[in-house]
């Protein structure tokens, strides 16, 4: 059976060992090693990645007590050099120890248990057995966790027989084991766990609570630790600096500045909408006088959105029984609209004829829209509607 280095020393990133077995299964190789530091997925912690003799390890999993390494190719010698993705392992280790400490503090301060732990490439969460947590509780939890990190408490790993478990006030005793691996944070808690852990709380670095979400009656608490937290801070610091530069504002004034921009923008769009109402009335009058004959008012616009064209169209149908056929080349869309007195069914026209011009859309009797990927076909469709459907064709 494989000697599991990840149980004894979480800081081994490179080692030499022998391949003990290899098997090709559906095109990938499943390899076992005499010694491995590759942690297989388990207990909320994802597997390690890295290389075996330069060949990428795609996944690592546990089968019974054996560790299986999945590779695309088989190394061509028995004695191999193994190498872990160090950054990934450190992130996992810091977050796993961080999770133990965070869960312990939630119990210590508020007697709230942890239901589950999940760690992925970009998030770490625990689900807490409570329907809600106040902002003050979150601040207290975060502060206490970081106090314990600063106190540099030892994290010890040792094995006990399962029948001794009651001595250690474990919140959960895993079943089916003769021995339990205990991870102790000195003076804080004992936890039965097979994961990789740092040796003192200060190696967690720092722990930040990021946000909470409600999840199936529990609170899902997102947190970040150590190296990942530093990367996250650097990225966000860059974003804030670049926004502050762009808005010529010191970072601490950004909330105020953005509030002002949003309210200016709201005011400007209210003014624009009022002016557009007036303008759309003028445009409607002009089109009504220019296109007196026939059942249609039809125009292609280059500068307005379909939403704006609907405002102009409603100005027309308020005064006339004609069917409006408008197109916006901004959006490659057309709008059919009338006030209900026309026998034309706008939605059916689109449904029955648009596809022949590579258009698609729909609507009801009085209003319909369609999108055309090709502007020439859009124009041909308008031509088709306004010449072929002049006789107020009733479409079933
Ligand atoms: Zn654990």
What this model shows, in words?
By secondary structure, this protein is α+β, with helices and mostly antiparallel strands. It has three domains: 82 residues, Beta Barrel (Elongation Factor Tu (Ef-tu), domain 3), CATH 2.40.30.130; 152 residues, Threonyl-tRNA Synthetase, Chain A, domain 2 (2-Layer Sandwich), CATH 3.30.980.10; 113 residues, Roll (Diaminopimelate Epimerase, Chain A, domain 1), CATH 3.10.310.40. The protein is built from eight helices and 20 strands. The strands form five sheets. The chain has a six-stranded antiparallel beta barrel. Strand 6 and strand 7 form a beta hairpin. The chain is elongated, with a radius of gyration of 34 Å. The N and C termini lie far apart (75 Å). The relative contact order is 0.07. The C terminus is likely disordered. Zinc ion binds next to helix 2.
Summarize the structure.
With 396 residues, the chain is α+β, with helices and mostly antiparallel strands.
């Amino acid at each position: 059976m494989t000697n599991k280095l990840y149980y004894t020393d979480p800081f081994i990133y490179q080692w030499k060992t022998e391949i003990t077995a290899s098997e090709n299964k559906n095109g990938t190789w499943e390899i076992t090693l005499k010694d491995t530091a590759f942690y297989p997925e388990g207990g909320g912690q994802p597997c390690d990645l890295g290389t075996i003799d330069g060949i990428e390890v795609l996944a690592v999993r546990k089968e019974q007590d054996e560790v299986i390494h999945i590779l695309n190719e088989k190394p061509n010698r028995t004695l191999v050099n193994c190498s872990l993705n160090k950054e990934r392992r450190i992130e996992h280790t810091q977050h796993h120890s961080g999770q133990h400490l965070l869960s312990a503090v939630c119990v210590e301060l508020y007697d709230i248990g942890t239901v589950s732990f999940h760690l992925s490439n970009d998030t770490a969460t625990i689900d807490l057995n409570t329907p809600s947590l106040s902002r003050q509780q979150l601040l207290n939890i975060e502060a206490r966790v970081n106090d314990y990190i600063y106190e540099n408490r030892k994290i010890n790993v040792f094995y006990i027989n399962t029948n001794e478990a009651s001595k250690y006030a474990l919140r959960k005793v895993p079943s089916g084991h003769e021995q339990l691996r205990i991870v102790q944070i000195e003076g804080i808690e004992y936890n039965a766990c097979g994961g990789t852990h740092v040796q003192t709380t200060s190696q967690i670095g720092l722990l930040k609570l990021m946000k909470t979400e409600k999840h199936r009656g529990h609170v899902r608490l997102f947190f970040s630790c150590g190296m990942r937290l530093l990367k996250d801070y650097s990225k966000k610091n860059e974003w804030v600096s670049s926004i502050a530069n762009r808005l010529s504002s010191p970072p601490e004034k950004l909330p105020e500045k953005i509030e002002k921009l949003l309210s200016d923008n709201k005011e400007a769009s209210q003014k624009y909408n009022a002016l557009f109402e007036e303008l759309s009335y003028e445009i409607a009058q002009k089109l009504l006088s220019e296109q007196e004959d026939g059942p249609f008012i039809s125009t292609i616009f280059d500068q307005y959105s379909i939403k704006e064209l609907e405002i102009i169209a409603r100005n027309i149908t308020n005064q006339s029984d004609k069917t409006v056929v408008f197109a916006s080349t901004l959006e490659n869309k057309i709008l059919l609209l009338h006030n209900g007195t026309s026998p034309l069914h706008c939605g059916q026209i689109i449904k029955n004829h648009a596809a022949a011009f590579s258009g698609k859309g729909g609507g009801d009797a009085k209003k319909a829209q369609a999108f055309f990927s090709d502007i020439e076909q859009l124009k041909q469709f308008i031509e088709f509607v306004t010449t072929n459907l002049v006789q107020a064709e009733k479409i079933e």
